[in-house]
TrEMBL record:
The keyword Hydrolase does not apply. This is Glutathione S-transferase domain protein. SUPFAM superfamilies: GST C-terminal domain-like (SSF47616), Thioredoxin-like (SSF52833). One of its GO terms (molecular function) is maleylacetoacetate isomerase activity. The keyword Transferase applies. One of its GO terms (biological process) is L-phenylalanine catabolic process. Residues 3-84 form the GST N-terminal domain.
Length: 290
């Protein structure tokens, strides 16, 4: 048995992103079950994970259901101390937990005005004063965390931790809505956009179902400010360089063109997530560079 994680739309569900990063960024295997937000799919999925009321929710290998991202973080840290979800240094660990708790409960104005949408980036969103106040608070706690932990790298408390996973959706909001932040905060955002696990999640989010009207805004758009993916596209047929899918090992049925060659996958989602950002997928990069 392994862990099972119930999530919503990858392009929009910020809490699901947090939950999934707690696995992928720390090398903990997990199977996912997905449901589309604002549809009957979500309550039907959650019926299999009582007493959860929303996503993400985890089922452990021994059958324990754990709703809420903070609880998931703590349970995974207890079961996998070697994974390093929290910093080893006591002061840095305490700081990281403070950060995660504030993110879990705060920044309501920012959440409401700038819902997570990984599929677009806007030139502006005309942030009101309450959103600017939330941004100022983010700058304050991020600087405090670095001072407390002595972190000099890209992350808040030394190595990438659960605290950074919790702030990943905020980083995406700053990127999506081009929110005004300091040079230091912008560098922290850029680190998130380039993080391998975030890139994989966003690649899946780009092709994970149709656009959700709830998240649509009429602001003028700009290019995504994160790493630009290689130019790949789906094509109707092969033959492909590779006879089996780089992820499942199954025979290929769906095809993608990149670098003047055709590559094969075992289903449309494997193909489409790869086409969205080929360099985000180590198993594909391995055959692409060989």
């Amino acid at each position: 048995m392994t862990y099972t994680l119930a999530i919503g739309d990858r392009g929009y569900s910020s809490w699901s992103l947090r939950g999934w990063l707690l696995f992928d960024a720390f090398g903990i295997p997990v199977q996912t079950r997905t449901a589309r937000l604002y549809t009957d799919e979500l309550p039907r999925l959650l019926a299999d994970f009582p007493p959860a009321r929303t996503v993400p929710v985890m089922r452990t290998p021994d059958g324990c259901v754990v709703p809420e991202s903070l609880a998931i973080a703590e349970e995974l840290a207890s079961r996998h101390p070697e994974a390093g979800l929290w910093p080893a240094d006591p002061k840095a660990r305490a700081t990281a937990r403070v950060l995660a708790c504030e993110m879990h409960a705060g920044f309501v104005a920012l959440r409401n005005h700038c819902p997570m949408n990984l599929r677009v980036s806007y030139q502006t969103c005309e942030p009101p004063e309450a959103v600017l106040a939330d941004l100022a608070r983010l700058e304050t706690v991020w600087a405090w965390a670095r001072a407390q932990s002595g972190s000099t790298g890209p992350w808040l408390c030394g190595a990438y931790s659960a605290a950074d996973a919790f702030y990943s959706p905020v980083a995406s909001r700053i990127a999506t809505y081009n929110l005004p932040v300091s040079t230091e905060a912008a560098a922290y955002v850029a680190a998130h956009l380039a993080h391998p696990s975030f890139r994989r999640w966003r690649a899946m989010g780009m092709v994970d179902g149709a656009d959700q009207d709830f998240y649509r805004r009429d602001y003028p758009q700009r290019p995504w400010p994160g790493p630009q993916p290689l130019a790949a596209k789906a094509v109707a047929s092969g033959p492909s360089v590779n006879p089996t899918c780089p992820y499942s090992g199954k025979p290929v049925t769906d095809f993608m063109e990149l670098g003047g060659k055709t590559w094969g996958f075992c289903n449309p989602f494997c193909r489409d997530k790869t086409a969205a950002d080929p360099e985000a997928w180590p198993k594909f990069v391995e055959i692409y560079q060989s």
